[in-house]
Amino acid sequence: MSALTPPRDIAIVGAGIAGIACALSLSRELTPLVPDLQITIYERHDILSTSGGAINLTPVAQRHLAQLGVLDELDRMGSEGGADVEAIELFSMRSGRPIGSIDFVDQKGNGFGGYKGRRVMRIVLSMAMMAVIERTPNVEVVFGKKVLGGEEINEKAVLHFSDGTEVISDLVVGCDGVHSAVRTRWVDPDSVSQYTGMSFLQATIPTKSLSSKIHFRSSALNVSRHGSLLTSFIDSDHEQIFAAAIVQFDEAELSNYRLDSGQDWASKDRIRRDLRNEMRERFAKSALPCIREMVDSKADWMLYPVYQVQPGSRWCMNRVILLGDAAHAMPPRDESAAYALDDAILFARILSRYYQEPLTEVFEAYERLRRETVESAFKESRRMWDRNRDMGFLESRLKEWMMPFQIRNRREKRESAWEFDATKVLLPTPTPSEDMVSLNSFLREEKV
Ligand SMILES: Cc1cc2nc3c(=O)[nH]c(=O)nc-3n(C[C@H](O)[C@H](O)[C@H](O)COP(=O)(O)OP(=O)(O)OC[C@H]3O[C@@H](n4cnc5c(N)ncnc54)[C@H](O)[C@@H]3O)c2cc1C
């Protein structure tokens, strides 16, 4: 195949948010141009993963999920489809008093560009995304296919799987998350994921199991000097609360708290008890009664260490590109999923606009559009993330005192970011590469 033939066989690695969104966007944008298009997603799990707890979707994430047809699927699921989040309220666990709120609605109660926030279980979001995939004719998902690496041979991209098989395609999109094999075994082996020093300790708690008053409307971040505890409803009937502590956790300790399917009953029981104790030590003295009740309950807390990918890593080669966390995992701050969706929509738009150009030019245009945005988001996430580390008494009092000002000062920037629409962004023009000038880019240069 010549380098200028549009990609027809596209392999996507990973059926997470980026992978599925990428398949849906590519199908929508490329099908009219490449009628025999075939997109295949390779996912290492045998079925959709039920782990990971709940996720907050910002107005931007909701807008993009609506454009992909996923929001309608979530809405069709009724109460399970998620809880509306009008604001994340902030409370001090020391005093029990409100500190401020991050509002997902304006003063009239309207969402930004029509969308508020939503907290939904990850598995529910995955099911809604899969429902859209099932009615998209040229997209197939193959489960139980773990990618070990890949290579470029004769203007094709080859994926190698753990079962000894391989697949040859015109283009590979690596959407395999923070520990991406496509990145570490192919595109940029030096860019290994790093532990952020912080972990999530999370559990789901039935609302009716709590007798004390729930102090938040839909979602709250309860801050203390021993980390923050996010508490949020995850269904529109408010029957379930997702609680996630964001805490400093030593890397050397992580293996002592990891639950594995192969462990014996006694080890699992010991880990559950230790995690409960960890929660009690940190938050049992909270002035908020329902927090005290949550940490005293028999909830099964699970540990999720949080990893990141240092900015500056390589994103692409000639026939392979990384999107989502595989390219730029950052400490989560309610917006990382939105970046994965933005990536998918923007990449599909650029590829379809310049589908007759060399892929290297398409990749270069995409990177020019995205690199600065995600790297500055990384810096912002890192700065906010550090606020959750363990602190001394005075430092934590200062943090609490500063928070209302910081929330207010960033309000305008935050709210204008929520108006972002990846389907309307002006696309850059590819710069012809030195060694591969397409007829189209040559003609374009001639006209100029
Ligand atoms: C604890 C925690 C809480 C978070 N909370 C939020 C939140 O509230 N809001 C928010 O916006 N973001 C949140 N994030 C971030 C968000 O989850 C990620 O940014 C988002 O999931 C990235 O999507 P992705 O598709 O790039 O990667 P992933 O969701 O990680 O998906 C990667 C997929 O690739 C598959 N895969 C991996 N390796 C291979 C392989 N070798 N072969 C084949 N398949 C493979 C995986 O099984 C998975 O299905 C949170 C992250 C963490 C860790």
UniProtKB/TrEMBL annotation:
Which GO MF terms does the UniProt record name? FAD binding; monooxygenase activity
Q: Which InterPro entries match?
A: FAD-bd, FAD-dep_Monooxygenase_BioMet, FAD/NAD-bd_sf
Outline the extent of the FAD-binding domain: 9-379
- Tell me the Pfam families matching this sequence: FAD_binding_3
Keyword Flavoprotein attributed? yes
List the SUPFAM superfamilies hit by this protein, alphabetically.
FAD/NAD(P)-binding domain (SSF51905)
Which superkingdom heads the taxonomic lineage of this protein's source?
Answer: Eukaryota
Arranged from A to Z, the UniProt key words for this protein are: FAD, Flavoprotein, Monooxygenase, Oxidoreductase
| Annotated family | Belongs to the paxM FAD-dependent monooxygenase family.
Protein name, UniProt field? FAD-binding domain-containing protein
User: Which organism does this record belong to?
Assistant: Penicillium diatomitis
